Amino acid sequence: MATENHGDAVLEAEKSKLKPPPMFKVILLNDDFTPMEFVVAVLQTFFSKNREQATQIMLKVHKEGMGVCGIYPSDVAAAKVEQVVAFARQHQHPLQCVMEKT
Ligand code: TYC
After folding, report:
1. Cα separation of 2 and 21, whole Å?
2. Residue 92 CB: number of other CB atoms within 10 A?
3. Which atom belonging to ligand 1 lies closest to the Cα atom of 28?
4. What is the pTM assigned to this prediction?
5. Is 22 in the pocket of ligand 1 (CB under 6 A)?
6. Which end of the chain is more exposed for a tag (fewer CB within 10 A), N or C?
7. What is the DSSP letter of 33?
8. From ligand 1's centre to the CA of 79, what distance in Å?
9. Measuring from atom 11 of ligand 1, which residue has the nearest CA?
10. 17-36 pLDDT, tens digit each
11. How much distance in Å is there from the Cα of 29 to the middle of ligand 1?
12. Distances (CA, A) of 51 to 37, 38, 54, 61, 91
């Protein structure tokens, strides 16, 4: 009959609708010139970290070369990268920020 697969079709449609979006890590890279205090300010301003969390992430980047600031959907991650790079350039710091699919 016409309705025999209706329930499955609805379930299938709901399943695809509910699929979570791909997520992206926003990563800060170390360099030899950007002041530690500036990196802490970036993490507090753009990634909603408190001073302690921001300091921990900054020190991890400083020692290990990179560190994750947060994980976001593609559009949010891309906006954060642009904001951080623009802010760093305004202050003439070479800080680099990139995104990477999880
Ligand atoms: N290495 C920098 C310094 O010694 C500090 C720094 C930390 C720079 C994290 C960038 O993403 C960074 N001043």
Report:
1. 33
2. 8
3. 11
4. 0.85
5. no
6. N
7. S
8. 22
9. 30
10. 889 999 999 999 999 999 99
11. 8
12. 10, 12, 5, 15, 20
